[in-house]
Amino acid sequence: MAFLSFLISGISLGSIYAIIALGYTMVYGIAKMLNFAHGDVIMVGAYICFYATSRFQLPPLVGILLAVVVCTILGIVIERLAYKPLRAAPVLAVLITAIGMSYFLQNAALLLWSSNPKVFPPVVPTGKISLFGGQLTISYVTVVAILCCIVIMLALTWFTSKTKMGKAMRACSEDKGASQLMGINVNGTISLTFAIGSGLAAIAGVLLCSAYPTLVPTTGAMPGIKAFTAAVFGGIGSIPGAFVGGILLGIIEIFAKAYISTQLSDPIVFAVLIIVLLVRPAGLLGKQIREKV
Amino acid sequence: MSSDSKLISIPSKSMIPERDIDKTPILECVNLGINFGGLKAVDNFDLSIGRTEIAGLIGPNGAGKTTVFNLLTKVYQPTTGTILLDGKDTHSMNTMQVNRAGIARTFQNIRLFNALSVEDNVKTAMNNQMKYNMWSGIFRLPRYWKEERIAHERALELLSIFNMEGMANMKAGSLPYGAQRRLEIVRALATNPSLLLLDEPAAGMNPSETAELMENIRKIRDTFQIAILLIEHDMNLVMNICEGICVLNFGRIIAKGTPEDVQKNPAVIEAYLGKKKEA
Amino acid sequence: MKSIRLNKTTRKNYLTYGLVIVAYVILQLMSSSGATTSTLQGMLVPICAYVVMAISLNLTVGILGELSLGHAGFMSVGAFTGVTAAIAAGNAIPSAAIRLIVGMVVGALFAAVIGFLIGIPVLRLRGDYLAIVTLAFGEIIKGIFNNLFVGIDSRGLHISLLSDKTNLAEGGKLIIGGPMGIGSIPKISTFTGGAILIMITLIIVFHLVNSRAGRAIMAVRDNRIAAESIGINITKYKLMAFTVSAALAGAAGSLFAMNYTTIVANKFDFNTSILILVFVVLGGLGNMLGSIIAAAALTILPEALRQFSDYRMLVYAIVLILVMLATNNDTFKAFLAKFKPGKKKKEEVS
User: What is the value of pTM for the model shown?
Assistant: First the structure.
């Protein structure tokens, strides 16, 4: 029973990672950049929801919606101001800009909301589901996180494969120049990708803080890195890859904590990533691209 | 400059078996082939090249010529067949080892070390002939100075084949197109090959540059006493300097022989011009 | 007769040596005459350490062309092993300067070994995958040092993981205390030691770059396939660059740690790796003088921004973004180029 309980909490944590990783992977796929500020957008989303529900006493759903709207706008603004001017710049320059943006968001949050930890109010009812006569209890947050992740994953898969905008997105990630020649609005598509990714980050932020209710300006940093790891784990650029990578990462982390060592759980997670990449250098579901000679 | 093992100076016509006077060709491919996901990009490729032969590999676009180069240099691992270089099977070798065994090449899409100077591009290719280790380099021991001086002189000497000594300090990436192609040849030569593969050496050159290049290719063969296999679309160049020609279409050899034979071959004419309509 | 011809690279290398020496002399004169503030005085050794970190990372990122996000991991290895060695040698070696040297050499050696071992798997990967794996190794190193306990007593060194199982004999001393890190470090790092380390680092890096190994490393960076085709052993040269880079970072870590009384593993986390990467990118890839200036300037900048108090890290972030935009955006660049037409022309010719 303990095993099952760990597995479920692993999947739940993994679901949150997966939602963040989906944002990472979509942005990577289209802009070919590691958006280090993504983790901090999560934090912003969580703060917005926190203030909406606890200071302004808005209903949780409105708080979440507000967080999504603010983060979506934030994502678009970040892309327009910082990344768009560097579209032709070397990869490293963009990376450093993203890091600068991450510092900026963290320190702006520090000034706006101070470094005092905020106790995140539950946006999901705090009850538990009891199974097997109370031997296995699952909190609602856990269930909601898993359901959210599945819904988002399915919606994104549908969006990228069936809709016109989604196809434009895939075209841009293959070849921006050719897409432009085919009449696709490349800038618009990239903005849309950042918007979706940031919106997802807001949802992930709310879920993360519902499960682990301490909110500080650096809340998003470590989950951001982990989710990025998850995206690479699954094969960066691949939507199912981010999903699988996120879930697996969550399970490994919880199992490592439960069965091996709490302090060494992060090193273990990273060690597994390294092993996976050595066996499959492009991640679990990534495509190995052969260089043309 | 030439080593004792490369003494045979008569250009052999090894592509035509009955006229093969060179008993030990430098390169021998038997039944060479590679599949890319079911597509036979190169199939049943047999070729042998004499020690000082200039051979041509021609064929329409997409025929698999560059793939043959990639197989010979082990950029791709062949699915079938064997490659014998100077009688030695290259099966277990990788690209680096094949080069050390004696094959050097140039690339269709130029691949220079753009941020390095012209001289350093050539010196890099001499890496395996230099022996001093990392510590000699860091502590600037006498070996460093001695070998670096020799490398410097040799690099200038090699560059002088194409009159490029004056460009030695320029960055390779900033050279004009033609000079970049020539530098690739010099770089390949600097590895002391016994077989030089040239992938479209005359691409983008005007007729006078091409004429000069032809002379230089001959000069290289004569001075270094090496075999040269080249891919080229410029038929004037191919027919003028190649002693044996191999024509490839859809990954298969459709003709082999002297320039005269190949030009008259109906299969070749068909591959290049299409099938003649029955009048 | 042969005259000594200095090409552009050599001239720039000598300029770099010269500027480091001049900077050292000026700062040393200032500090002996009491002209430096105590803040600056306290920052001299960290600046030296960061400069060495930046130069060594530039070897990996600029010269080898592989993005490493875990460079602080090697700094950590150097710090912990170097300090342990310096403390362990404490009784045997009375001279602080020699203990500092021992610490830095041991730190460099351990970091080199770790760098070599990590390099074997890591360098098979490419691009962003390589970057993420270096990040992962950096985090693993941090995790291990956070849970490592090392003690010394009359019977020698005792090492244990996760919890303190060193069972030291009477009079023994716990050197590394897991998440508490190392306490009571002898503060033996000096500005002179740091300046000498910078000079040695520069000599090693410049001489390496300017030798057959350096050419091979840069060839691998510029065009891997072409490098293979001329018989370059890619793995060997990648490993060489990576190991030398790790060793130098280890020495820097040792220097850095022995400037403080306590040091914890969390000091050398992902953020430190990123900080150093920022130095390298701002200073220019492959440009060692740039790395030195960027490392020194950006270490001082947050202090210089003290008047902005709470806003200083925010300003730092904005400065970072603006500098990246200014140096990489064509519109920005064209605008800036108007102010220096001479330089612009020169670039076009070469």
Answer: 0.87
